[in-house]
Amino acid sequence: GFNQLPLYGHIMAGRNAALPSNSAGPTGGRGLGPFLSQSAGTDKIQKNEPIIVDYVASVEAYNSDQTRIFALGKLKDELVKAHEAMRTIQNTLAEKGQPGVVTGDLYQLALDMAQSAGLAENFMGYPVPVPFIGHGVGLELNEWPVIGRNMRVPLEVGMTIALEPKVVFPDKGVVGIENTFVVTPTGMERLNRFPDDIIVC
To answer: Running DSSP on this structure, what letter comes out for residue 74?
Structure first.
C-alpha cells in the first residue's frame, strides 16, 4: 500500500463497502472488480445506509487524508453509536499522542477502547482486521510511522499522522472517521477542518 497513488479517494456505500477485498486498508468493497475494489460500483446508493467518502487533498505537494460518513436519511442507532465510538478513539489517541509515546501503545489503546465499546470483532476490518489504526502522511499518502501492532516507533514533534478508526458491519456498511494530525509537544493537533459528524442529506 505504500508509494502507489499520489492522489486518491473513494466513495462506497452500504453493504458494498463492507465486502472483503484485496485492499490493504480496513475497508473493502466490490467496486468495478477485484482489482479496483475500493471504487464506485454500479449499485445505486440507498436511503439510510452509510456512505463512506475517503479522500486526499494536496497543498504544495503535501498530502492530507480524511474520511467522512454521509447518508441519505437517518442511520440506524447501532451505526451512529459506532461512529461516535470511533470519534472518541480518534480524539483520545490525539490527546495521548505526545512526543516519546510509542506507536504500538497507541494502537493497543485503540484496540482496548474498541473492545470496551463492544466493537472489537468489527474494528478496522471484517472478517480480518488490518493491524493498524493510523499512518504517517506527507509527500506520499502512506508514510512512516505506522500506528500499528508491534510497531515501536516513538512519536516526535513534527510527525504528521492520519488516524483512521473505522468499524465494518457486514451487510450494513462502514462508519468511522479519519483526520490528519501533526504531533506537537502537548499532543496531536488536527489539521482537517471539516466537521466529524455524520452528514445526513
So the answer is: P
Q: Measured between alpha carbons, how far is 139 from 126 in angstroms, rounded to an integer?
A: 30
What pLDDT, in 10s, does the model give residues 119-166? 999 999 988 899 999 998 887 778 889 999 999 999 999 999 999 999
Contact 137, 178 (CB under 8 A): no
pLDDT number for residue 157: 97
Alpha-carbon gap, residue 85 to 138, rounded angstroms: 27
Sequence-ordered list of residues with C-beta below 8 angstroms from that of 53, at least 6 positions apart, any chain:
9, 10, 11, 67, 68, 69, 70
Beta bridge partners of 160: 182
Residues 6+ apart with CB under 8 A from 137: 63, 64, 65, 143, 160, 161, 162, 180
Q: In whole angstroms, what is the distance from residue 141 CA to residue 146 CA?
A: 12
Residue 160 CB contacts under 8 Å (≥ 6 apart), including other chains: 62, 136, 137, 138, 180, 181, 182, 183, 191
Cα–Cα distance list, 34 to 42, 134, 149 (Å): 14, 24, 27
What residues form DSSP beta bridges with 135? 146, 162
